[in-house]
Amino acid sequence: MTRYFNKTYFLGFLILFIIEGLIAYFLKSGFIRHTFGDFLIVILLYCFTKSFIKTKPLPVAISVLVFAFIIEFLQMGNLLKHLQLQDHSVAILILGSTFQTTDLVAYTLGIFTVLIFELKLKNL
């Protein structure tokens, strides 16, 4: 396996990571925190993955979306309680604590945004 690192995607990841951190720190509720943050998180995960894996955008986008959906559906079964992490704020922040269908919509729109952006760049 050859080593691969894409600075552009990693820079996108870092910028989105900082934005997500600022949202988590300064906003405790509302649309930006709960919905826009979910929209951005799949883009962040996509950029992180594309930083190290050289492949076409569609498989990465689908993988990230499936991963986000799995985490969201695991919240239905009280994932944090089963992992005994229900009192850990970092775990709650990363994995979430409640299932929301609006999160699924936000994840999907985030991935569609990535694919549109990649199509405009002719990487698709």
From TrEMBL:
It comes from Bizionia echini. InterPro entries: DUF2809 (IPR021257). Pfam families: DUF2809. Keywords: Membrane, Transmembrane, Transmembrane helix. The chain crosses the membrane at residues 7-25, 31-48, 60-80, 92-117. This is DUF2809 domain-containing protein.
